[in-house]
Write a structure and sequence with these properties.
By secondary structure, the protein is mostly helical. It has 4 helices and no strands.
Length: 135
């Protein structure tokens, strides 16, 4: 008779998966904000050298949000391997939440109209989801 091999549960296996996921999320968020910082530096240099209008700068900021969200979604999809679009959405939402917390702390309140608030939320979340689907 053949003996069937049984897998023995590894102690703390669930904990290690969560810690790996949390560590991965933090690394991806760090990469997203690193890219955001570099792109904002480029945008500010362009503003200084080319005297860009306010509307062009606003469009540039939106493009930076979308690019960073896409990057975070793409990286999270590559790391997590399952439910990529969902992980992309989560990364985009986390990116947005950190942006809003930073805005509230540094500006002592939300200094944004409600429609722009929701538009930014949708842009960050959707770009993260698209990045996750592309991975």
């Amino acid at each position: 008779m053949e003996k069937k091999l049984q897998r023995m549960p590894v102690k703390g296996q669930g904990e290690s998966r969560w810690s790996i996921s949390l560590l991965s999320v933090l690394k991806i968020l760090l990469a997203m904000y690193f890219v955001t910082g570099i792109l904002l530096l480029i945008l500010s240099a362009m503003l200084y050298k080319m005297q860009l209008s306010e509307s062009v700068v606003s469009i540039g900021i939106v493009v930076i949000y979308v690019a960073s969200g896409f990057l975070g979604g793409f990286l999270s999809g590559k790391v997590m391997k399952k439910k990529k679009f969902l992980w992309g959405m989560i990364m985009g939402a986390c990116y947005f939440l950190i942006l809003m917390v930073g805005s509230i702390v540094f500006q002592k309140g939300i200094n944004m109209e409600l429609s722009r608030f929701f538009t930014t939320l949708i842009l960050c979340t959707a770009s993260g989801m698209i990045g996750g689907m592309a991975s």
